[in-house]
Amino acid sequence: MNSNAGKVARFGMLTALALVLGWLDRAIPVTWFLSGAVPGIKLGLANTVLLYAVYLMDWKGCVLLMLAKVFLSGFMFGSMSAILYSLCGGALSLAVMLLVRRGPRVGALVIALLAAASDAMLLMRNPHPRGQMLWCVILIALACLAALAAFFIIGRRPDFAVLGTSLAGAVAHNIGQILAASAMLRTPQLLYTYLPVLVGIGAVVGCLTGIVAQRVFKALRVPIK
Amino acid sequence: MFKLENCALPRLLGGRGLRFAALLTALGLVLSGCAPATEAGGARVLVDGAAWEGPAVSPEAGEGLRVYITCDGKPLLDLPFSEPHSVQILQGDGAENTVAITGDAVYMDHADCENQDCVQMGEVTRDNLELRVMGGFIICLPHKISVEVRDG
């Protein structure tokens, strides 16, 4: 599948898939399980497409696919500001995935450390968490453990390398979006209230999508370099 | 001869694709940082149905909890937490938000944005200020409105 026609077909298929999954992301409400405490959580299924692109295509294709996804789904469902948020998220997550593809173990370890740091940050803000906060602290601790587990699993089973890339990509997407949002609203406070929670949630979601991606890669016999 | 391509860092950072993506991120951040605030200038504020004519930042604030409302990074008004009010924010592009201040709670009563995240964020009270994940914040990202409860 290295011919031009093959590339075009693959690109078209991935773009269509990204748009459909982007719609599905909106249709599945994930926010309810935290009872509205943390707004704007999505499964990030559309970003799994970017994950496949990182392994299947060259960097030009990846960037083009990311831009197509951001602008097409932005014009279809969102507003101008939504495009900016997802452009920042998408670009940062793509940069991190391209970087981490060569060393997925490092990626998983960095995410584990980030999750531990954000848990510490939440606990520092509120040493005796109750209610919503307690659930978030538990969730981030779980995310930290999951990332650590990914670190060890990748060491033992190289075919699980996708897991590290997916983790890092999901967390980077959240960080990019929150950076854009705090720049746009001029509320740097978002960085210490909202970001720790989003890092934890990104790690959990990244783990789930990574496991899905690993299965798909195995079935499609995608080479993992 | 010094060439960027021969440096360890760019090679470590993995080639042109990565640099391009990093550049795009930076561009997006800069764009969102200096996005023109055209609609915010035209934001109309109605407090209890009447147009707000007070200052955007009240000078005598200093005691007790206050509710700070900003639009697109600019302060619109601030009110005492303990006085019941209903604040309606109408922007030039048709965006509409209603913030309810009941005297012991603040919440986004109504918003015509696409995701309704701000409405689902629930209320800020004196008791849950420290317990809420978002602290004293209620934020409507699509309309760029932030409501913050904090000490004056």
Explain this structure to me?
- The complex is a heterodimer of chains A (225) and B (152).
- Chain A has one domain (4-220): Arp2/3 complex 21 kDa subunit ARPC3, CATH 1.10.1760.
- In chain A, 80% of the residues lie in helices and 0% in strands.
- Chain A contains 9 helices and no strands.
- Chain A is globular.
- Chain B has a 6-stranded antiparallel sheet.
- In chain B, a hairpin with a 4-residue loop joins β9 and β10 (145-151).
- The longest helix of chain B is centred in the first third of the chain and has 19 residues, at 15-33.
- The mean pLDDT of chain B is 79.
- The interface between A and B is large, with 52 and 42 residues.
Provide a concise account of the structure shown.
Chain A is an all-alpha fold and 225 residues long. Chain A has nine helices and no strands. Chain B is 21% helix and 34% strand.
